[in-house]
Protein: Uroporphyrinogen decarboxylase (URO-D) domain-containing protein
Amino acid sequence: MAERTQLFTDLIDGKIPKRVPIMSMFTHEFAIQYAGMDLKKVQWDTTDLEACFEKVCEDFYSDLLPVSAFRMPSFYKILGSRNFVMGSNGFLQHPEVEGLKVEEYDDFIASPYNCIVEKVLPNLYSELNADPVTRSIVMAKAFKAYTDENNNLFRIYGNLIGKYGYGTVSLFAAFCEAPFDILTDQLRGFKNISMDVRRIPDKVEAAVNAVTPLMIKMGTQPFPNKYNATFIPLHMAPYLRGKDFERFYWPSFKKLVEGLAEKGMRSYLFVEEDWMRYIDYLAELPAGTVMTFEYGDPKLVKEKLGKKHIIGGFYPLTLLKTGTKQECIDKAKELNDILAPGGGYYFTFDKAIITADSVNIDNTRAVLDYVANNANY
Structure:
């Protein structure tokens, strides 16, 4: 545990670690499937969840805890959720939703928090669209389920970190979204926001500015620590025109990351899709921002960001499914040769592994073992 923790603290301190740290990321859905359990059953009755997680820990190398559960279905069911709905295949889906109606923009701009509580939540959760007494009871039940689920998960995490000696650095110490992303994902939806930026651009700009302080508050860690980070998945930027990115996305997002940094908190960005046309913007963020890249040019990223930020990702899960074992290992070596020199690099795949059939298990193990034994700076 001490050695693995040191790998990441050195990485964050700008020192050259003993070797390249590894952060494997498997979801609870993968773990349940991989352990041969019923995906639908175990998510509702989590008695066997620890055993599922433990099988991942036993079989796949990582320097940090390799498996976690981000959303459990129980509290969404109690709330009558429209934005997170359990699918027939056992996977929680995020349908296109409209939590904020277009005529409610002014209310949101005036007070984002009040508008979310009074208007958005009843729109997104049918059981909260009720009289005050019923709404309070539903919220109390859902919050009890939420805390019960999380307390159980934290117990499992603690057990596995102690048993397997994982590092104690957390890149998921808190969570929030870029202001434009929260407006898109939960409030207006992809289709509506795409129309809004053309039809009512001033209101969109005012809305992202208004919600920025709320996102800083949401992303504030309970116990700030420079070796932990606030997780921010980046969604909409690659789908925006350059001038729309510059006006609606970047200023509030930069203010969010800087606002967290001013409070002593590091940001961990999942740079989804291809950000290469916006790579110079990322260079402006506070030094030591951690980034996992999904797609793009690793050489360009190393050139533009490698001296200031901490970089991971780029390894395609698709190769683990389709490539030979040697091809998979060769890809890990190629990325290490590009990204490791000079430090500031950790190994992780380009996205979390969600299903047991999305990768070749032997290839996945082989790559992680190769990196653990051979990847140096």
